[in-house]
Amino acid sequence: KQKRLNISSCLQVTKMLKEYEWIASDKPLFGQPNTPYDFKTNNPKEVGQKLQKWQEKKEMLGRHVNMRAMNMLSETEERYNELMKKKRIVENDKTKILATIEELDQKKTEALYIAWKKVNEDFGSIFSTLLPGAKATLAASKMQNVLDGLEFKVALGNTWKENLTELSGGQRSLVALSLILAMLLFKPAPIYILDEVDAALDLSHTQNIGQMLRTHFRQSQFIVVSLKDGMFNNANVLYKTKFVDGVSTIAR
């Protein structure tokens, strides 16, 4: 009988060694003082009772625990990971959009400077043709930045005017006309219509407008309505309107 008990005990120990790997590593500590395996200080019976109480408490708590909590946690983690993925996509798109905006701003600035340089050159040339001896320019504002605005600078002879209010009404009309034509010259159209642009000007200025159109707009056609003979000297074709028996007629 004792032999059978010994064999049974050996088999049980072998089984436990296979199931619990920590037994082999902690075996040298069994029975040693000041260790968890000091069975003189730690009564196995009392420890067993405490273990049973903790197991009972665990079972009691288990009855009140939401068993779906782990599933809910898993679902929440999946949603979180999906949101983080979308966040990274949005952040990458934001970076690309900001880079595109910066590139477009740079191109816009470059295009604006090119347009300003060309329009300013033509503006001065046209104004000098319309008003011989005078000069005009589009200067950057006080901040010396075209993006902050431009201002007119006009000189009659060698005297630069501080303000356009120092010019006569006809001179201001020539400034406005020069700027409009300079902007049109930046991207010329095949045909333009001018309706009495010389109404506020004297005859000499009217003649200068006709000469300027011929020299600066060689690739464009103009339909010009005028009541002054000075404009007609530079025309290729003239159409005259008049009333005949109360009816408006046109003759070439």
* Average residue pLDDT: 83
Number of helices: 6
CATH architecture verdict of the largest domain:
3-Layer(aba) Sandwich
CATH level 1 class label of the largest domain: Alpha Beta
- Rg for CA atoms: 49 Å
InterPro entries: P-loop_NTPase, RecF/RecN/SMC_N
Coiled coil: 66-93
Main location: nucleus
Subcellular location: Chromosome
Question: What's this, in brief?
Answer:
It is built from six helices and seven strands, in the order ααααβββαβαβββ. By secondary structure, it is α+β, with helices and mostly antiparallel strands.
Structure description:
The structure is a single chain. By secondary structure, the protein is of the alpha+beta class. The protein has 4 domains: 1-28, no CATH class; 31-65; 69-186, Rossmann fold; 188-251, P-loop containing nucleotide triphosphate hydrolases (Rossmann fold), CATH 3.40.50.300. Helices cover 55% and strands 14% of the residues. The protein contains 6 helices and 7 strands. The strands form 3 sheets. Strands 1-2-3 form a 3-stranded antiparallel β-sheet. Helix 4 (69-130) crosses helix 5 (169-186). The longest helix has 62 residues, at 69-130. Its main location: nucleus. This is SMC2 protein. InterPro entries: P-loop_NTPase, RecF/RecN/SMC_N. It is found in: Chromosome.
Give the key terms.
single chain, 252 residues, alpha+beta, three-stranded antiparallel β-sheet, two-stranded parallel sheet, 6 helices, rod-shaped, chromosome, SMC2 protein, P-loop_NTPase, RecF/RecN/SMC_N, coiled coil
